[in-house]
Structures are given as structure tokens and as C-alpha cells.
Amino acid sequence: MNRLTVAVAIASLLVLSAAFPARLGAQTKATPANTASQSGVPRTADGHPDLSGVWWRGADIGGRGSNAGGGAGRGQGQPPRTFASLYQPSAQAKAKALSDKDDPSLGCVPTAFGTLNVSLFDVGAVGQIIQTPKFVVMLTETYHGFQIIPFDGRPHRDNVPPSYRGDAIGRWEGDTLVIDKTNFTDSNWISAEGRVSFHSDALHVVERYRRVDAKTLEIDATVEDPKVLTGPWIVAKQTLQLAPFDQIMELNCSSSDISDVKSLIDAAAAQGKK
């Protein structure tokens, strides 16, 4: 981890640590849905599990079980598999020419998947799900992020431009919500904080959300990109906990302050020369 990443992480920790006591004091505790199954999983009127709630790993910064760079394929003594570890030779060559200074998130651009391997979080560590009879709405605290996911059988839209987070549709397989994302722009990275992880416009993400009990949400994901990867990235199962508050906060990111953004980019470039 270079000095810039450490500095950004420390700054984020200070901001979020200061906000955390206020968060708990200012917001009410989460309340269960109207109905619940025998396992304690709340259900909506149509019988589906209700995924609604604020989800995290037990703290604003990563928390318990944090797996910022993790993925499937981790053996004893081996580093966790990442998206970039599956780059084709041409993508590996391109990656060698990139560094912290090229990270799109320095300009408040969201990630395509998520730095902690949870797309609900984006570059943060807290997210909120709101479920209606036709949609699941996912909100992130960072970058004003949101995604509206219909699960009423409609297909992907063919009349919208590519986007940072892709076009998402959902379907229920038993008690598991399967979310399929396509139509990504290739101008952002899979994750942030200087982790070189560019992708192409062929990116395809499939996530599976399962609420296993009243306070636990499990997420599996498979990420494909045939233009840059040698095979699918099977992301390790992510386990989230229901937070003790029922609303996320707004954490601003503004690229309008050019001096601050430029200083971050210059610092990243300087680190790369050492």
C-alpha cells in the first residue's frame, strides 16, 4: 500500500469515525418487516424474502470479515484472487502502465463493482436496500449512488446508454434474488483506492442475494469480461449484517474542487516515480 492510499484511508477513517457516534444517536434502530418466516426472515406480502435494511460488516470501515481484495481461489499461503489476476496478456501489459493517478474514483467516478467486493457498497462500507412489489432499490452512501432493479420479468433495456454500474434486472430463484447486470461503460474500474482494475464494455455481473435470517445477508457474485479476462472471476461469498440504524447518511464526493483533486493526482503520480 503506497503513501497516498494510506493517507486517503486515514482521512476516510477519521471522517467516518467522527460520524459514527452521531449516526447511532441520530437514527432509530431498524425494525423488522410485517411478516417473518420460521427462520426469522421477514417476508413481503407476495411471499418473497424482504431484503430491505441497512447492511454492513459491523463497522463503517470494512468491519468484521472485511475482504477488500478477496475472491475465490484462495489457498493456504496464496493471495486472494482478484479481478486483475485474471487479465489476459494484453490486459496485463496495459495494467503495467497504470497506477494510483489513473484511478477514476479520484474524480468521484463510482466503481463498476465495489472495492470491498460488494456492489451495494461501491467505494464505501454501508448500503441500504429498499424493496417494493416490483423493484429492489440499492442505495450507497458514497457518490450519491443508487440502482433500481426490477424483478417483474422485464428484459434488459435496449434504449439506455452504457453506465458506470450497468443495467440491472432481477429474478427470484426460490428465496434467492438473482441480479443480472450488463451494458457497462468501460470508463471506470472494478474497484478503487488505486487498485488497477479496468474492464471493457463486455462486463457482465451476476449476483445472488439471500437473507439467511433476520440479521444476515449473503451475497455470491460471478464477474465475466471476455475482452480482458481469461475466465470468470468467482467472487467469494460476502456476509453482511443488519445495521443498528435504518437510514444511511450522505457522504459527499465533489470533483468541483479542482485543487483538491489535482493534489491527489499529483501525489499519486509522485509516488509512482519513486
Task: Please specify the SSE layout and strand pairing.
Blueprint: H1 3-26, E1 35-36, E2 42-43, E3 53-56, H2 89-96, E4 126-131, E5 135-140, E6 146-150, E7 167-173, E8 176-182, E9 204-213, E10 216-224, E11 233-242, H3 258-273
Antiparallel strand pairs: 1-2, 3-4, 3-11, 4-5, 5-6, 7-8, 8-9, 9-10, 10-11
Percent of residues in β-strands: 15-25%
Distance between the termini: 14 Å
Radius of gyration: 19 Å
Poorly predicted runs of 5 or more residues: 1-33, 62-75
Question: What level of helicity do the residues show?
Answer: 10-25%
How would you state the average pLDDT, rounded?
82
Count of DSSP H/I helices:
3
Total E-strand runs:
11
Number of folding domains?
A: 1
What characteristics describe this protein?
alpha+beta, 11 strands, nine-stranded antiparallel beta sheet, 25% strand, single chain, two-stranded antiparallel ribbon, 274 residues, globular
